Amino acid sequence: MSKLGQTAPASTLDSALLELVDSYWTEFLDCAPDTLRRQTVQLVVHAALGDYAGCYLMEFGGAPIVSLPVHEVESYRAAVTRWHPGIVRMPELVEAVFGERVAATIGPAFVGYIDVAHFRPVSPGAARQIAHIAVVTHPGFRGHGYARTVVSTLTEIALGRTFVPQYRTLEANAPSIAMARRLGFLQYATSLAVRFTLPNTKGNCDAPSNARG
Questions:
Q1: Which end of the chain is more exposed for a tag (fewer CB within 10 A), N or C?
Q2: Average per-residue pLDDT for the chain
Q3: What is the pLDDT of residue 91?
Q4: What Rg do the C-alpha atoms of the chain give, in angstroms?
Q5: Which helix H or strand E contains 20, and what residues bound it?
Q6: Where are the domains positioned within the chain?
Q7: C-alpha span between 30 and 174 (Å, rounded)
């Protein structure tokens, strides 16, 4: 499946690339590779997220893997284990579990990867139209294909240097996702990050870099 709101066929990516990406996320979440797409919720302690003061959800086509700080796991185990596949796209239900502790929610966000076989580049000559790469396209210049050209060029460079290109954007940003899909990106997962307000606890309350669109 590849439509917005669904998990795309990441299994159609090159098998070696898919294994590498799976390995990255299992290390990031500290879980076993064969559990990424399990149909029951998994609750884990922050691994790569370190002291991030919040809840981080990832869905890879199954039920969510939910990561919490070590001192928060047991407090929320009963509520979290009742969640179901698709909860990552229902932030209001996730926020309800944490109540007034919620400071901000980032997502749901598209997490996509691409390989050489799926890459559909824009004409290389078009890249000369862009002088600077910007995180956000100015509203007055949207709709001209500039963002697609930039992402296409960067993807081509990354693939040429044997990197694995990753593209992330909020699912609310439909044009951004459509652009990524036109280039050949496949949705690998969906993420949702809920940042806590902890005035009396030391911790990193910034959104983890992997949660930002």
A1: N
A2: 81
A3: 95
A4: 18
A5: helix 15-29
A6: 10-211
A7: 31
Quickly list DSSP for 93-136: HHHHHHGGGEEEEEEEEEEEE--TTT--PPPGGGGGG-SS--SS
Give CA–CA dist 4/144, Å, rounded: 22
Range scoring the smallest mean pLDDT among 36-50, 71-85, 133-147, 159-173: 133-147
User: pTM score, two decimals?
Assistant: 0.74
Q: Which of 105, 74, 104, 70 is nearest to 87 (CA)?
A: 105
Percent of the chain at pLDDT > 70 equals 80
Of the candidates 178, 123, 131, 127, the residue with the CA atom closest to the CA atom of residue 4 = 178
| CA-based max dimension of the chain | 56
Q: What is the number of other CB atoms lying within 10 angstroms of the CB of residue 113? A: 23
Count of Cβ atoms closer than 10 Å to residue 83 Cβ:
20
- The answer for residues whose C-beta is within 8 angstroms of residue 34's C-beta and 6 or more apart is none
pLDDT digits over 112-125, tens only? Answer: 888 888 877 765 54
Q: Tokens standing for 138?
A: 């100015």
Two tokens, residue 195: 């940042």
Q: Among residues 185, 174, 110, 106, which one has the least CA distance to residue 142? A: 174
Number of H helices, E strands in the chain: 5, 6
